[in-house]
Known about the structure:
This protein is mainly α. The chain is about 40% helix and about 5% strand. The protein has helices at about 20-25, 35-45, 55-65, and strands at about 1-5, 30. Strands 1-2 form a two-stranded antiparallel ribbon.
Amino acid sequence: xxxxxxxxxxxxxxxxxxxxxxxxxxxxxxxxxxxxxxxxxxxxxxxxxxxxxxxxxxxxxxxxxxxxxxxxxx
Length: 74
């Protein structure tokens, strides 16, 4: 999963309550599947805020065109 905050639709208002900001500071950040699962587990247990990334549909469509498997989870 590549997290590009420049393409996040809620950038600014949701940054203060996003796991990326809490753990990494200002992205873009590239997480692999294991790291993504770990972040989800931490968020589900309440230890960190969840990922608040919301990408526009055209970004997801471009990722699908590239064959990016992460786009299928969106």
